Amino acid sequence: MMKSSPANRGRDIERQAGYLRPEHCMPPPPQTHSAGDMWFIRDCCGIVCGVITWLLVFFAEFVVIFVMLLPLKSMLYSLVNGALFNGLAFLALASHFKAMCTDPGAVPKGNATKEFIESLQLKPGQVVYKCPKCCSIKPDRAHHCSVCKRCIKKMDHHCPWVNNCVGESNQKYFVLFTMYIALISLHALIMVAVNFVFCFEEDWAKCSSFSPPTTLILLILLCFESLLFLIFTAVMFGTQVHSICNDETGIEQLKKEERRWAKRSKWMNMKVVFGHPFSVAWLSPFAPPDHGKANLYQYVV
Ligand SMILES: [Zn+2]
Ligand SMILES: [Zn+2]
Q1: Ligand 2 centre distance from Cα of residue 48 (Å)
Q2: What does the alpha-carbon distance between residue 52 and residue 60 come to, in Å, rounded to a whole number?
Q3: Of 25, 131, 134, 159, which residue is the catalytic one?
Q4: pTM, rounded to two decimals
Q5: Mean pLDDT of 290-296
Q6: 72: Cβ contacts below 8 Å, ≥ 6 apart
Q7: pLDDT bucket at 239, cuts 50 / 70 / 90
Q8: Closest ligand to 157 CA?
């Protein structure tokens, strides 16, 4: 018996357990991925983008420290701004690393076996969905990513800059990454502005240990980089927070999927991604958010 409701239109496969034909799926591969293993996507484009991200941050660090702060006479200004910029840059890179190397919420590959479907003990009226590409039983709101070659729970999008999918389990790190990059970009822009004002009054040669043309080129490059990334990451941060508050992933917004999940308050939705209860740990890329998620494989239609 097939059921077709508007909410399920456009989904990959929709059948009752008996029709899933699990015998057509390869047996699941031997468990090579345990909880302690590091997650890393071997995608050339993503790896190149990830390395470029780190190099751009290191370039900004170099210009801020060696061109702007160290040659200055004011120790206090240099110390305060140096500590702030380096602290934020460290948090940005740590968030990037965590976003890249955290399993975004991948569904076990090839779990669409007869035993697994039987173990779900489906009641009449309940259906499960099978992904035809990775032979897994899809939980609700999971989508298949062609780069990761896996189904990802609450997949938002695949981001080449962090060389990973943004999904249920790593969205916090991705949001922190965009926030810290926006903050260091803003901070760099303010410092470049202060530097320009200060150095126009003083002699250029006294203001930097590099020659005036080199100093100018490096500062303009930093200005350009910061402005570009400030706009890009601030927009991304806003979009992410908006979709977290509304509990709707980027894919769901694009596909205009009908809402099948319970509505919660905006604050509750934030806690689901960043952890319970609200604390400074929300800002730390080293504190894994405690979701307390339910693994919902079954749908009531
Ligand atoms: Zn899949
Ligand atoms: Zn992906």
Answers
A1: 15
A2: 12
A3: 159
A4: 0.85
A5: 49
A6: 78, 198, 207
A7: very high
A8: 2
Which listed ligand is nearest to 145 at the C-alpha? 2
| The two three-digit tokens of residue 291, written as one number | 């979701």
Q: Cβ neighbours of residue 288 under 8 Å, at least 6 residues apart?
A: 275
**Model confidence over 46-100: pLDDT tens digits?**
999 999 999 999 999 999 999 999 888 789 999 999 999 999 999 999 999 999 9
Residue 216 Cα to ligand 1 middle (Å): 51
Instruction: Please report which ligand is nearest the Cα atom of 163.
Output: 2
Give the DSSP letter string of 230-249: HHHHHHHHHHHHHHHHTT--
DSSP conformation letters of 71-105: T-S-HHHHHHHHHHHHHHHHHHHHHHHHHHHS---
Cα(223) to ligand 2 centroid in Å equals 32
Annotated catalytic residue 159:
yes
Q: Which residue in 134, 127, 128 sits closest to 111, CA to CA?
A: 134
* b/e per residue 170-194 (b: at least 16 CB within 10 A): bbbbbbbbbbbbbbbbbbbbebbee
For the record, the structure tokens of 300 come out as: 């009531």
